[in-house]
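In full, the data:

***
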Amino acid sequence: PGGVGMAGEVIVQAAPTATPTGTPTATTTGTPPGSTTGTPTATPTVTPTTTGTPPSSAANKLYLPYIQQGNQVTALRVTITDIGIAGENYAIAFQASGFTPAFPGTHMHFYFNTTPATEAGLPGSGPWWLNGTPSPFSGIKRSDRPRAATQLCVLVANNDHTVQQGTGNCYPLP
């Protein structure tokens, strides 16, 4: 389950789980009794049942960037290629395509996947971290990580700090 939310971000929620219940029942197939050919086989049958539906609260949602395809793709792109740890900070390796990160100018906004992509730049409320320098970026502290965050994300940002949706990716946190 999931879907596309506002401004193209993908919302992912946990799906209900199926748990097998019941008792296997043996059935015999083969040739009739008294025959000299054939081998009886036992075929267990189990009927799965669906149990539980996770709550639909904001605490159970993670926001992933929606990568556009087709003629809507921009020539600008930034991709996180690795995340390491450098003391108290994350060391984020990335590749920028179609632009050179700079202030003032086109730069990047990094944010955790607990923040919707639509909030990763103005007029959103974030939080996000700015970067206008070459790779790697180490301006995010490990203590900045929200408890539910599993990934760090990035988008290309304009000089006015609005972001270009569909221009980045998310990468698993170490």
Summary: Residues 1-20, 66-70 have pLDDT under 50 and may be disordered.
